[in-house]
Structure formats: structure tokens, C-alpha cells
Amino acid sequence: MEVCGTHTYAFFRFGLRKLLSCYVDFISGPGCPVCITTDSYIKKALILAEDKKNVIATFGDLLRVRTRSGSLEDMRAKGADIRMVYSPLDAFLIAKKNKRKRIIFLSVGFETTAPLIAATIKQAKSEKVDNYFILCGNRLIPPAMRTLCEDKDIRIDGFICPGHVSAIIGVRPYRDIARKYKKGCVVCGFEPVDIVWSLYLLLKQIKEKTPKVENTYTRVVKTGGNRRAQELLKEIFYVDDASWRGLGVIKKSGLFLHKKFSQFDAEKLVTKNVEESSLPKGCRCGEVIKGKIKPYECSQFGKRCSPNSPLGPCMVSFEGACRIYFEYGRGI
């Protein structure tokens, strides 16, 4: 399994999946932050967008994710102030320039983006920017990998581990997966040579039955990761159980604001009760995220569901498996 959606993209872009598919069965994992964000999170964002005092700042992919209540794109068409940003710092700067509005950043993503989000919270407290908020939806990758290992319906022999996430957390968090579940793990970059070398090492582990953690992305990923980023995360967030689309509630897999930073938590601004709802009829994004099916095994793939008219989040995001399969390798 390639955990990261960017690796899925790289496999297709460089033709490696097609070249090696006779020998290796590649399974796309849950490493797309937009794809694993739950309907209830989107619904909370929609409720917040209804209030004219609020400005919603979000990454672009999240705009088009549909729920039974509609999408953020629909809300923006109706006049809600929803702005696309490229980083949480953009949202923080909007807050500094618009003191009469509450700026709410939709904080989704994994360990890669979480330190920068934490930095904006720390800066907001230091500079007393009291109109900046985040709706926290950040998730941690290793707990999701452990959940996949425990699912008997999914046959995973080894993991290509995400390079960007590993730049923050290092390689140590994967050691328990190799030791306890006997699954080889190789931290991998995104160039063809990185991927081929990582696949070679992983296949060698599988053949020799020597599961362990190896790192081929040493120019970026250090064994202990980025200590400064890790300390910042511990200062701003605590870890608790969290919901993932397709995977359900995973223990100790989500980041939440510590009490002393709760003034920046947009969750307390949500005025209505929100219940989780199912995906549109026929959409199998949950199974795709879990690696139980390939995107083309969904009956809606390329028919009712396409990038121009997506049913589920996996066809929305550029890191989503369905989107990548549609654009680069339908039927492979």
C-alpha cells in the first residue's frame, strides 16, 4: 500500500504502476486529507458559513466535497464569504486585516501541515488576534496504518510510507507496525528513483520475511524527524480519538486544541447539532479509502462520478485515488 495520495499520483505519472502491475498489486491508502474528512466536519463548516459574521478560509479541494446538505461551493454561490487560501498563514493574515469578521480556517490535513497551523495559533495568541479561529480536523497517519493492519479483509504485505509526513514525525513511529504486525515499511520520496529503490527494498523484505523500517528519503527525512515541529504540536494540540471517513473512529488519531488555546476553536461557534450521514447512493469512497476496492470497481466510476461531477471526495481531490485513476489510469 502506498499510504500517501501523492505517491499514487507519482506512480501513475511516471508509468510505474503500469510497468510493475504484473508483479506487484498496488493498493491506494488513506493518505488524502480531503478524502478522509467526514461529512459531519463539512456540515459544521456549512453551518459556520451561514453566519454573515464569519469568513471561511479553506484549501480549494474542500470546496467541492458534497454532503446531503450541499457543498461549500454551493454556499459560496449563495453569497457566503468563503475564500480559497494556500496556507493557514493566508487565513491568519486575512484575520489581521479584517477585525470585524471572524476568520475560520478549515484545518484539515496530516502531520505535514499541522505544525504551520499550530504556529498561526501561537502567533494569534501572542499578537492577541482574537478573530482568528480553526475548525480542527487534523489527523495522524500511523494510527490509521495500524487500523488497516488489524482489518482481516485487507491483505497488505508492506507499506510505502509518506515522505512529507515522515519529515515531521521521522521513522520511529513505523517501527511498531513492522514489529507487531510484521509489515515492512519504507519511507519514500516522490521521484522515480526514490520509488523504484523503495519498492526494491520492500519486496526484498517481503521475500526474505524480514519486516523492518527503512528510509530512502534521507535527504529530507531524519530518524527522529523535525523535533521543533513535534514540540510545537505538543504545545498547541492534544491527541484523542477521531473519526475518519471510511475507517470510522480510530483511537488517538486526531489533533485537538489544548484548553489554553480553546479561544481559537471554531467548534464552539457551531450552533446546531450535526449528525454523520452516508455518502450518496452507489458511492464507494469509503471502501476505496480503506483499500478494499480499486476505484474502477465502483459502478459509478466514470459514469455518474467524474472530476466534473464528483459523487464522493475521492474524485474531488487531486490526491484522491478515484481522481488519479480517472485522469491517468482508468482500468489499470
- Beta-strand percentage range: 15-25%
What sort of overall outline do the alpha carbons produce when their principal axes are compared?
globular
Provide the CATH architecture: 3-Layer(aba) Sandwich
| Global structural class | alpha/beta
Instruction: Describe the largest sheet.
Output: 4 strands, parallel
**CATH class term:** Alpha Beta
Topology pattern, helix = H, strand = E? EHHEHHEHEHEHEHEHHEHEHEEHH
Record the strand order, biggest sheet.
4-3-5-6
What is the β-strand count? Answer: 11
List the helices and strands and how they pair.
Blueprint: E1 2-4, H1 5-13, H2 16-20, E2 28-31, H3 33-36, H4 39-50, E3 54-58, H5 72-77, E4 82-84, H6 88-97, E5 102-109, H7 114-127, E6 132-138, H8 141-150, E7 158-161, H9 163-169, H10 175-181, E8 184-187, H11 192-208, E9 213-215, H12 227-236, E10 237-244, E11 248-257, H13 285-290, H14 321-328
Parallel strand pairs: 1-2, 3-4, 3-5, 5-6, 7-8, 8-9
Antiparallel strand pairs: 10-11
Helix pairs in contact: 1-14, 7-12
